[in-house]
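ingest -> fold -> write
write: protein_1
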Amino acid sequence: MPTSIGWCLATIRNFARRGRSSASRQPRVIEAELLPNPQIALSYPFYMAGPNGSDAFSVGVAQDLKSILLRPTRREIADNAASAINASLLWQEWQTLGKARLLFVDIVSGERAEKALQRSRKFLQERFDLTKAAIKQGNATLAALSPDLVAVGDVEKSYDDLERLQLNRRHQLNALLGLAPDAPLLLAGASETPRVDAQRIRADMASLPDRRPDLIALQYGYRSEDAKLRQAILSQFPNVAIGLVSGRDSSSIYSFGPEASFELPVFNRNEGAIALEQATREQLNREFNARLTAAEGEIGALLSEQSLLARQLAAIEPRLKEARLIAEKTEAAFKQGSFDERAYVDIEVAQLTREQEKIGLQQALLDGQVALATLIGAGMPRISIGPEPPPADVLGLFQATSR
């Protein structure tokens, strides 16, 4: 039963979803929402000497405040980081689908080219055999065999090269589909090339950052790094731990009350972490702009190539139609015995050569359209991640800051 490109793509999607890493949002958010455990301090100094003394003890419990204050920022970091990873995984899946489309087009086009080469080889081999027979009968010389030998050798080499290439393509497609390398797969697809709407593609380029998963991943990555930068700035403030302590001293006096401890930011004010997050955020911004510019350039180049290929394909149609008409008339004359066999084979091979040229142009057009579909995210839903929400900032230090 013939296999369509739709079935291939659906199969690859299922494999990709099944094997997708569990980089889901939930585990990361759960980890970000967890509060630090309280700290318990115990001491029991033994009484060693002195009048009317006793063993002392103390029990205290304290909680780190900075981790609680930074909890909303950690949640923001986790949300954006998980979204960036999921978008990156989606981009990998999208590229795999593009590779499958390309292999499908190349295999179907290669099968058409194989048929044309087989016919050319048949004509040339028959002429070669006739020339050999004529030499044996003394009606031709070895000089007449030389061009036939070269022609047969060339077409056989072309066919063998294409046969190896087709086998490699099928192995790659079967691997993407999760099939054994030699599993039979009968492909069926349209041979005509659809028209490319260059004007619409150029108009849709403005929304490219909302459709390309890799660009969406970079945007979420930027937001995650922006939150990390704010977290690093907030981490400059002293870490305060508050709690309660109760105990008894060596004179058997009991006490109970609050306790606080904090670090003094004298030697390390987190400048290194702040500089690192600033550099990382700026690097993500540069990478986003560079990738967007590169994508726009590649799309523009492909559209230009598509225009040229379409003109060349339109130009070859009348020449191919003429070659087919001449070949039909020549074949009829040859069957009636009124046309030379060598000239007949030359005309048939010339017509098949133009057929192969058309197949090559159609394949190049389809390959370009597959590349365009992958680059522009054709068929991908538009994912607007929306404006950046207000920063998670319990101290109110960043409310006036906007990116």
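write: protein_2
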Amino acid sequence: MMQRLLTLMLALVPLFALGAAPAPQANWLTTVVETPEGGYRQGNPNAAVKLVEYGSRTCPTCGRFAEEGMKPLRDQYIATGKVSYEYRDFLVHGAPDLALALLNQCVGTQRFFPVLDAIYANQPQFEEKLIALEKTPATLEAWQKLPPAQMATRFAENMGMIAFLKTQGLAEAKARQCLADPKAIARIAKTQADGANLYKVDGTPSFFVNGRKVRAYSWPYLEPELRAAGA
């Protein structure tokens, strides 16, 4: 009897194996968290390679990296769990950068990166608005003497940022609230100060691979650094 039962169980093993569903693969592109350093990280928190970018939304070189580098970075490295990517603010252009940083963070964690991509894609339009404003230097000088919240709001209004973020689903009332948020302003200021003082960031984009600052400002130079680190 025991022999017959054992034979039956062995015969059923292949059936159980066939019916077993494969373990679901993590969608690392939707794994986004705020970090203690004030950044936003996308990807596997236990990735072997941790990439950090100090970036500016008004920096043309950062804009080119967003256009040329982010798709292969996400498709080949972040989605596969090999690399995590963290974006931290470094405001190389002052008030316009602060306004965009506050508005980008205002959309929430899960929308942060899609809106960051959209802001970079719209960078030429923001630049046109800023060039127009620079024709009235007295006005700009007056704005730059305002407290940070008021200064950021003036630039956001006159550079079309509030209107643009509305196309990304951010209501105007919420946008204005975020532009005046003292805690958000302080958090961004701390990220900036830590970048300069602790990590010796002096321009954008600045990339760190597993804590090491690398001499790379574009995707063709950054990708070999990721591979050398084990990605």
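write: annotation protein_2
Residues 63 and 176 are 25 Å apart (CA to CA).
Residues 33-43+93-213 form a domain with the Ribonucleotide Reductase Protein R1; domain 1 fold (CATH 1.10.40.110).
pipeline exit 0
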